[in-house]
C-alpha cells in the first residue's frame, strides 16, 4: 500500500543506506551497496575462436537488461558465428580445462560455447520464456545476461528510512539459490526491519568465488563487520544457510541478537548417522547422473501449484538462475559443519523452523543443544515451506515476533 511504500527505502544506493552501512575496513572495497569482493575474472581462452567470441561479447549491439551486465550478450549473432566451430574445441571455453575421456563437451543452450561439465552448471528461465520446458542450461556469460539478478553487487537491501534504530534481519539463502529467495519475506518485513539478503560463494554474484566453509563463513562475518556491526542483528538462514548459521553462531556468538534456522533439521555433519551420510553421498551421485535442468524440472513439478505460486517460484528462483556449480563443494562443507559442537556456544535465542515432510531427524537434538531454543514444525510442509501459501503468512509473523522480542527480558 501507499503508506508501506512511503515508509520503505529500497535498494542499495540511497542516503539512508549510506548512513546505515559502516565504512569498510582499510583493506576492503567500498561497501556502500557495492560488491564486497569482486569475483575473479576468467582470462580469455588462447584461441582465435574465443578471441572472436570475446570481441562479440564486448560489442554493444543491443540495449541492456538493467542487471548491470551491459547488454544481451548471448543474443549476439556475432557470438553465435564465432563459436560455430566449438564442436572441435579442445578446451572448455570458460575454465580452459582440456576435454578428454573424463571431461566431456557440453554446449551452452544459448550461445553454443563448448563447456566442461563443471561449467555447464547454471539453469535459468529467461524473461519472455514460460514454464519449465523453456529452461536453459547456460554458461556464466549467458547466465549473467539473462538473469534478473544484479551481478554488480552481492547483497540487496530494503528497510524503513524513518527507523534507523530498527533491528536488522540478515537473510542467508540455501544451496543452489541466491539472495533473491527471501523476497516474499523481505517485502512483508521491510517496513519494520532493515532487511539484507546476501549471496554466499558459488552462488549469485559470487558465482566465481570457490565455496568452502572458510569462504562462506568469511562472507557472513565480513558483511557484518563491514556493514552492520553494532546493530541488533537477527540471522535468518534457510537450508544450507541454516547449517552455515549454526556454525557462525558458535564461532561468533556476540554478532547476533538471535537466529532463525530453517530447513536444517537433519544431521549431516561429522556426528551424522550412517543413513544421513549415505543420503548425502547419494545426493551428490544423483547430481552427477541427472542433468541440472532435469533436476530443476523435477523439483519444480514436485511443487503443488495450488499452494506454491508458479510466478513466485519463477521470480525468486528460476528467473535469477539456479546455481549447481558449487554442489560438490556444498556437500563437502555440510559434512564438516558440526552443530553438536557449535550450538552450545551460542547464548542467544534460536528459533528452529522445519517442514514436517522434510528430513528432520536432528531437530530435537538441535533444540536441546541450544541454550535458548524453540521449535516450530509445519506438519504438511516440505523443504520448500517458505514458498508455500499455506504457511507464508504464519512464517512471516513468526519471524516478525521473534525479531521483535529476541534478547529482551520476558516482561518486555
Short summary of the structure?
The protein has 412 residues and is an alpha/beta fold.
Structure overview:
The protein is of the alpha/beta class and 412 residues long. It has 15 helices and 13 strands. The chain has helices at 2-7, 15-20, 48-58, 77-82, 140-146, 183-189, 213-228, 240-251, 274-289, 292-301, 310-318, 327-336, 339-342, 363-369, 392-405; strands at residues 8-10, 106-107, 114-115, 122-124, 136-138, 155-160, 168-172, 194-198, 233-238, 258-262, 322-323, 349-355, 372-378. An eight-stranded mixed sheet has the order 1-6-8-7-9-10-12-13, with helices on both faces. Strands 5-4-11 form a three-stranded antiparallel sheet, sandwiched between helices. Helix 6 (183-189) crosses helix 15 (392-405) and helix 9 packs antiparallel against helix 12 (327-336). The longest helix has 16 residues, at 213-228. The radius of gyration is 21 Å and the shape is globular. The chain starts with a helix and ends in a 7-residue tail after the last helix.
What portion of residues is helical? 25-40%
The biggest sheet, with number of strands, parallel, antiparallel or mixed sense and barrel status, is: 8 strands, mixed
Radius of gyration: 21 Å
Portion of residues in beta strands equals: 5-15%
Order of helices and strands: HEHHHEEEEHEEHEHEHEHHHEHHEHEH
How many helices? The count is: 15
Mean pLDDT: 80
Major sheet strand order: 1-6-8-7-9-10-12-13
pLDDT under 50 segments (min length 5)? 1-76
- Decide which structural class fits the backbone: alpha/beta
Query: Can you tell me the overall shape?
Result: globular
Strand elements, count: 13
Distance between the termini: 30 Å
Amino acid at each position: 500500500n501507499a503508506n508501506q511504500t512511503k515508509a520503505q527505502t529500497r535498494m542499495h544506493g540511497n542516503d539512508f543506506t549510506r548512513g546505515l552501512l559502516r565504512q569498510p575496513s582499510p583493506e576492503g572495497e567500498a561497501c556502500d551497496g557495492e560488491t564486497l569482493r569482486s569475483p575473479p575474472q576468467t582470462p580469455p581462452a588462447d584461441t582465435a575462436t574465443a578471441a572472436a567470441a570475446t570481441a562479440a561479447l564486448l560489442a554493444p549491439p543491443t540495449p541492456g537488461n538493467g542487471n548491470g551486465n551491459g547488454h544481451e550478450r548471448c543474443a549476439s549473432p556475432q557470438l553465435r558465428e564465432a563459436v560455430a566451430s566449438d564442436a572441435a574445441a579442445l578446451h572448455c571455453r570458460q575454465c580452459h580445462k582440456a576435454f578428454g575421456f573424463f571431461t566431456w563437451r557440453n554446449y551452452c543452450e544459448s550461445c553454443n560455447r563448448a563447456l566442461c561439465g563443471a561449467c555447464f552448471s547454471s539453469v535459468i528461465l529467461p524473461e519472455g520464456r514460460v514454464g519449465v520446458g523453456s529452461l536453459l542450461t547456460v554458461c556464466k556469460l549467458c547466465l549473467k545476461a539473462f538473469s534478473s539478478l544484479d551481478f554488480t553487487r552481492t547483497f540487496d537491501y530494503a528497510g524503513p528510512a524513518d527507523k534507523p534504530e530498527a533491528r536488522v534481519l540478515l537473510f542467508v539463502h540455501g544451496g543452489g539459490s541466491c539472495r533473491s529467495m527471501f523476497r516474499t519475506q523481505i517485502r512483508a518485513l521491510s517496513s519494520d526491519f532493515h532487511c539484507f539478503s546476501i549471496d554466499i560463494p558459488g552462488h549469485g554474484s559470487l558465482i566465481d568465488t570457490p565455496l568452502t566453509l572458510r569462504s562462506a563463513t568469511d562472507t557472513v562475518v565480513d558483511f557484518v563487520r563491514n556493514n552492520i556491526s553494532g546493530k541488533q542483528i537477527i540471522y535468518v538462514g534457510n537450508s544450507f544457510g541454516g547449517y552455515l548459521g549454526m556454525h557462525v553462531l558458535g564461532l561468533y556468538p556476540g554478532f547476533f541478537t538471535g537466529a532463525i534456522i530453517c530447513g536444517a533439521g537433519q544431521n549431516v555433519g561429522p556426528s551424522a548417522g550412517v543413513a544421513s551420510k549415505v543420503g548425502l553421498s547419494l545426493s551428490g551421485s544423483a547430481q552427477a547422473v541427472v542433468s541440472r535442468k532435469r533436476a530443476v524440472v523435477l523439483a519444480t513439478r514436485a511443487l503443488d501449484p495450488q499452494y506454491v505460486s508458479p510466478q513466485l517460484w519463477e521470480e525468486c528462483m528460476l528467473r535469477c538462475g539456479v546455481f549447481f556449480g558449487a554442489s560438490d563443494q556444498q556437500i563437502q562443507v555440510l559434512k564438516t559443519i558440526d552443530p553438536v559442537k557449535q550450538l552450545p556456544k551460542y547464548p542467544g535465542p534460536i528459533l528452529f523452523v522445519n517442514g514436517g515432510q522434510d528430513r528432520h531427524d536432528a531437530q530435537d537434538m538441535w533444540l536441546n543443544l541450544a541454550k535458548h531454543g524453540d521449535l516450530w514444525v509445519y506438519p504438511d510442509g516440505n523443504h520448500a515451506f517458505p514458498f508455500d501459501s499455506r504457511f507464508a503468512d504464519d512464517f512471516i509473523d513468526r519471524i516478525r515476533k521473534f525479531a521483535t522480542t529476541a534478547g529482551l527480558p520476558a516482561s518486555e
